[in-house]
Amino acid sequence: MNVKSLIRHETLLALLLVVVLIVLSFQSDRFFTVDNLLNQGRLMTEIGLIAIAMTFVIATGGIDLSVGSILGLTAILTGVFWQNVGLPLPVAATAAIAAGTFAGFVNGVIITRFRVPPLIATLATLALYRGLAEGISQARSVRGYPEWFYVLGQQDVLGVPTQLWILFFAAVVASIILAYTTWGRTVYAVGSNEVASRFSGLSVEKTKLALYTASGFAAAVAAVIFVSRVSTTRSDMGTGIELDAITAVVLGGTSIFGGRGTIVGTIIGLCLIQALKNGLSLAGVKGDGTIMLIGAVLILAILASNLFERSGTRT
Q1: Considering the domain boundaries, does residue 245 fall inside one?
Q2: Within the chain, how many helices (H) and strands (E) appear?
Q3: Is 190 among the domain residues?
Q4: Is residue 308 part of a domain?
Q5: Closest Cα partner for 90 from 101, 81, 102?
Q6: N or C: which end of the chain has fewer CB within 10 A?
Q7: How far is CA 241 from CA 7, 47, 174, 191, 228, in A?
Q8: What is the four-CA torsion angle of 20, 22, 27, 30, rounded to 10 degrees?
Q9: Burial of 114 per CB tally in 10 Å (0-12, 13-18, 19+)
Q10: DSSP code of 144?
Q11: pLDDT tens per residue, the chain (315 residues)?
Q12: Whole-prediction pTM value?
């Protein structure tokens, strides 16, 4: 992994985020307020949890397109286990998270045991898990959760949204694992050269299996937080969230070919995307314009990073 290029990319991205925050603050006096910024943190937590796990997956040269469907399936199962099966809500949520984690494990088995490319495998399970969610829900939503359940998605701890504490904790732990542990170095090694990693005695298959299982777990936890935030469950929850997560990861400097990436970069990329969405919305820009601008920022950030990397290798 080229540490210098990553530092340069993250620094560039952080400076871009500061510029965007300053510019958007002049577009609307509601943007740069404590309430609005904390609310945006509340809204980006689900994507953030998925993006953190996705950073590990993409750093190995893989991808997980099924996370949105796993989120939807877990959300539906939470409601069904509680309302239809009659389980206590904590047990129902735990069982649903276990099911979402198992869905991630199935992805890992398909990819490692049957040698199916991650893009194809998770594209197939994207459809499978979404179909299961729709079949189980029968187009019905579940509402009426007890008040205490909303602590996760709608209430604060020490003045900060509860889910932001969860995201912060997950980001810190993931950063330490990826940057400072043997397992983190294995992730980079697998992404850089999978064949050489095998010859070096690294457990490539076990690493991949663990990563896709963790990706399912992150999506499942995000689902429970999502349900707590919006007070209902629907089978279409999480549709398209995988693209937002992948965009944040790639924008944050993780190479889509593997072998490079950091959690800090992913979080900065996530904040940049959320700032653009919120700031442009407050400024009156329509949704299509926001999507186009985010796409342009992604392309420019990647091009700038590649230029810095090339100049670094020449010197």
Answers
A1: yes
A2: 13, 2
A3: yes
A4: no
A5: 81
A6: C
A7: 27, 7, 20, 24, 17
A8: 110
A9: exposed
A10: -
A11: 455 555 578 888 899 899 999 999 998 889 989 999 999 999 999 999 999 999 999 999 999 999 999 999 999 999 999 999 999 999 999 999 999 999 999 999 999 999 999 999 999 999 999 999 999 998 889 999 999 999 999 999 999 999 999 999 999 999 999 999 999 999 999 999 999 999 999 999 999 999 999 999 999 999 999 999 999 998 899 999 999 999 999 999 898 889 999 999 999 999 999 999 999 888 888 778 888 888 888 787 777 767 766 665 555
A12: 0.94
The size of the chain, in residues, is 315
DSSP sequence for 192-221? H-HHHHHHTT--HHHHHHHHHHHHHHHHHH
- Phi and psi at 157, nearest 5°, equal -125, 120
Residue-number span of the structural domain to which 183 is assigned? 47-264
Total domains present in the chain: 1
